[in-house]
TrEMBL record:
Residues 1-43 are annotated as: Disordered. The lineage of its organism: Bacteria, Bacillati, Actinomycetota, Actinomycetes, Pseudonocardiales. PANTHER family: BIOFILM ARCHITECTURE MAINTENANCE PROTEIN MBAA, DIGUANYLATE CYCLASE DGCP. Residues 390-442 form the PAC domain. This is Diguanylate cyclase. Residues 214-251, 312-356 form the PAS domain. Residues 471-605 form the GGDEF domain. Residues 614-864 form the EAL domain. GO terms for biological process: regulation of DNA-templated transcription. Residues 19-43 have a biased composition (Polar residues).
Length: 865
């Protein structure tokens, strides 16, 4: 219905023009709903005013002041014949009302009170009077407005209160509750609208909805109770925590629904917060923190379920307590607030005694053994930096005197309200791990057999010393002469013990600050910075050799060790590296060996050329052996008493394609260095046995075959089998073969000599007199022949000392029934002296030079007789 269509309460399809508008507010000739009321009595007026007052205090079903009192007033005024005074009072009352009141007639606003102007932001009534009523109403509320107006059929009837949105003059909107009354204005039908501003109510309702949402979505149980403890409110979280639905608990004592005694008054009296154990509907125990507050109609309880937290705390405490690592918490005051059992055990103190102690009472030392200052303790460092520190290693010195190594990890703990953080420190006892690490580090840098420095440590030490510009560094490279004989003949157990003794002697003989090391095998090293002159170093080398040459006894055997020493000096400014210095010392050691056993030599640049030349020669020899270019030659051995050839000595000869014939002694040395001596020796043995056997048969001559055995061959476990196979293939008996062994090797090869002699093979001691010759040795070894070293034979006729020495050797040999052979006879004078001294056999250039088997016939026919 259009509000314009109003005429005596009957709708009209014609919308009036603006000339039909009513006067503005404040016209003295008009009263709302009154047209010159008749006169009446004063008591009637007083009754009406009293009735209006009563009506104004009436409350509707929602508890608000009745909006209907105005329409009731209109009806009373219409019935009152004397409405002048009463109408004026009523208008005053309308103007002062907090409710907005608007009167519109035929769609036009004819009256607004101050409250209505305030609602829409008008300062004077003329801003509103004359407007069409729909101009003041939001489009969304217009249809409902028209419907309400259309429902009013009789004067005095009124609509139900309904929300409506007004449009303010400033373009805003305001929500009001409105109620329309069909009344009269200046005797004509009109509508009076009474409006209540809902802004405050809406804000309050929004606040209540927000609070309700908080309560509804809170994770903690929120319970409201009456003053006597009956549940009046129960949020969803309470349902989840306790397992009771809302309709199950309303009006039920709170103690019953939480499964434990609960008096809100007592909680408030206790300070408002208590810890309690409640039980859910299924009997599950709950750890609950209860907060209580009193409100106007009872109590509100906030029950925080801390069951999971308490369980986690208990589990955490159990985990911390069972850790192998120590855990400490040092509070802001510097005192220990928490310590687990491992912390007490590692610290060596009784359980619980750490709590309350100042952290500085723990005696910590760094890796150098220096006490850790108070301001460098883990708690102090973390408080300064605010950062986590890991992997710090310290030593704690316990009350029982034990020292334990710890690996620390420390970090800050900032609790709410703390301005200074606590510090959490965990520590592991790494004493055993550190000992293992140190042992592994030691083993990585030390020789396991002698416990001396190994090559790695020696080179590192050498690098440090040569880097110091103030030091002169001396390197002595030491090699044991003929150590292979000991290892091969007596076994590695004896050899290892010899190496240990040598290491101990070197350590004792060297200076306190010198580094003594073993490079491997029988090679040792001394690095010293205590000498600057070559003469001083010579004295040191002499001292070391004398100390090492002292006899030693291993497993009941007396042994003697000679050493060859290579020496290199590195003065300040020397540009050679540690590896180059070690290599040069090695070269000097090999040079010393060329001088004979027990010698030393200083490095010279030419040595490198010799070594390179030696290496090339060794490769050439290896190729010659593979190609069968090593020739076997034979030298007759004659009996000086009869002139008969009693034996032939088989020798190896190598004719180098560039260098020509290689000296037999050098050939043996090269072959030994290149591990070729065993191969060459086996080939010579087989070839000599076969060729001499055939030669004897062809010429009907009986003579023995003499073949030298190297030290390596003596230690070969297949030697006896090789000898037997060679004899069988050659058709010789064991008595036809003599194996010649260097005299210096015999003292450590008694077992091998005994085994050979048991086969019937003869054994000759070569170069007798060049080593440690003694009658005891001749008696101990089962020998057949001794061969006097050529150095003594060469001096016969030239040195007056030579004859007594040779005579003495022959006397010792003949005393134990040994045949004596003179090696290297070159002159008639030598031969004559040997005859006179009673020498048995001789060989050498004068007797017959070495040659191929084909030359033996002529040699046999021309030997001395």
């Amino acid at each position: 219905m259009d509000p314009d269509d109003l005429d005596g309460g009957t709708p009209d399809t014609r919308r009036p023009s603006d000339q039909d508008s009513s006067p503005a507010n404040g016209a003295t000739t008009c009263t709302v709903g009154v047209s010159n009321p008749p006169a009446g009595t004063t008591s009637r007026h007083a009754s009406l005013v009293r009735l209006l007052t009563e009506l104004s205090t009436e409350r509707d079903h929602r508890g608000d002041p009745a909006l209907a009192f105005l329409s009731q007033g209109y009806r009373l005024l219409e019935q009152n014949s004397d409405g002048g005074t009463l109408g004026t009072q009523y208008l005053t009352m309308v103007e002062a009302s907090p409710y907005g009141i608007c009167v519109h007639q035929r769609g036009k606003v004819v009256f607004v009170n101050s409250a209505a102007m305030r609602f829409v932001g008008a300062s004077v009534s003329t801003e509103l009077v004359g407007l069409h009523i729909t101009d003041m109403v939001d489009t969304g509320s217009q249809d409902a407005l028209l419907a309400r107006i259309g429902s009013l059929a009789a004067p005095g009837s009124f609509s139900e209160p309904t929300e409506m949105t007004l449009l303010t003059l400033g373009g805003g909107k305001v929500t009001v509750e409105s109620q329309a009354v069909l009344t009269t204005w200046e005797g004509k039908p009109a509508y009076q609208v009474i409006m209540r501003d809902l802004s405050t109510q809406k804000a309050a309702e929004a606040g209540l909805r927000f609070q309700a949402a908080l309560v509804g979505h809170a994770s903690d149980a929120i319970i409201a109770t009456s003053p006597d403890g009956l549940v009046t409110s129960w949020n969803p979280a309470a349902e989840a925590v306790y397992g009771h639905e809302l309709d199950e608990v309303i009006g039920v004592p709170v103690s019953e629904v939480v499964g434990a005694p609960m008096d809100p008054r007592e909680v408030v009296a206790a300070g408002g917060v208590v810890q309690a154990t409640h039980f859910s509907a299924d009997g599950t125990a709950l750890a609950v923190r209860v907060s209580a507050a009193e409100m106007f109609d009872g109590y509100v309880l906030l029950c925080a379920d801390e069951t999971a937290q308490r369980r986690a705390e208990a589990e955490f405490a159990t985990v911390v307590e069972t850790l192998d690592e120590g855990v400490l918490v040092v509070g802001p005051s510097g005192r220990i607030e928490l310590a687990n059992s491992a912390a007490h055990r590692i610290s060596g103190v009784p359980e619980g005694s750490l709590i309350g102690l100042e952290s500085r009472t723990l005696r910590l030392h760094d890796e150098r053994g220096v006490p850790v200052p108070v301001d460098d303790l883990p708690s102090a460092r973390v408080r300064r930096s605010g950062k986590v520190e890991t992997g710090r290693v310290v030593q704690v010195r316990r009350r029982d005197g034990a020292h334990r190594w710890l690996s620390l990890t420390s970090g800050p703990l900032m609790a709410p309200g703390q301005s200074v953080p606590s510090v959490l420190t965990s520590f592991a006892d790494i004493t055993e791990r550190r000992a293992i690490s140190e042992r592994l580090a030691y083993e990585a840098t030390h020789d396991p057999l002698t416990r001396l420095a190994n090559r790695t440590l020696a080179l590192n030490h050498l690098r440090r010393t040569i880097a110091d510009p103030a030091l002169t560094t001396t390197v002595l490279f030491i090699d044991l002469d003929k150590f292979k004989i000991i290892n091969d003949s007596l076994g590695h157990t004896v050899g290892d013990q010899v190496l240990r003794i040598v290491g101990e002697r070197l350590r004792a003989a060297a200076g306190h600050s010198d580094l003594v090391g073993r490079l491997g095998g029988d090679e040792f090293l001394v690095i010293t910075t205590g000498y600057t002159e070559a003469a001083e170093v010579r004295a040191l080398a002499d001292h070391l050799q004398r100390r090492l040459a002292e006899s030693l006894t291993v497993h009941g055997r007396e042994l003697h060790i000679n050493t060859s020493i290579g020496i290199v000096l590195a003065e300040p400014g020397d540009t050679r590296t540690a590896d180059e210095l070690l290599e040069d010392a090695d070269l000097a050691m090999y040079q010393a060996k060329t001088f004979g056993p027990g010698r030393y030599a200083f490095y010279a640049p030419i040595m490198r050329e010799r070594v390179q030349d030696r290496f090339i020669l060794e490769q050439d020899l290896r190729n010659a052996v593979a190609e069968g270019l090593i020739e076997t030659v034979y030298q007759p051995v004659v009996d000086l008493r009869t002139g008969d050839m009693v034996a032939v000595k088989a020798k190896s000869r190598w004719d180098h394609p560039v260098r020509g014939p290689i000296d037999p002694a050098e050939l043996v040395e090269i072959a030994d260095d290149g591990d070729l001596l065993t191969i060459i020796g086996a080939e010579v043995l087989a070839k000599a046995a076969g060729e001499i056997s055939r030669w004897r048969a062809d010429h009907d001559v009986h003579c023995n075959v003499n073949v030298s055995l190297s030290v390596r061959q003596l230690g070969d476990p297949t030697l006896l089998q090789l000898v037997q196979t060679t004899l069988d293939e050659a058709g010789l008996g064991p008595q036809d073969l003599s194996l010649d062994v260097d005299e210096t090797a015999l003292k450590d090869a008694a077992d091998a000599v005994d085994a050979l002699r048991k086969t019937g093979v003869k054994v000759t001691a070569e170069r007798f007199g060049a080593g440690y010759s003694s009658l005891a040795q001749l008696c101990r070894l089962d020998l057949n022949v001794i061969e006097i070293d050529r150095s003594f034979v060469a001096d016969l006729g030239r040195s007056s000392d030579a004859e007594p020495i040779v005579a003495g050797i022959m006397a010792m040999a003949h005393a134990v029934d040994l045949v004596v052979v003179a090696e290297g006879v070159e002159t008639e004078r030598q031969l004559k002296v040997l005859h006179e001294l009673g020498c048995d056999w001789a060989k050498g250039p004068l007797v017959a030079p070495p040659g191929p088997v084909e030359d033996l016939k002529s040699a046999y026919e021309h030997v001395v007789r």
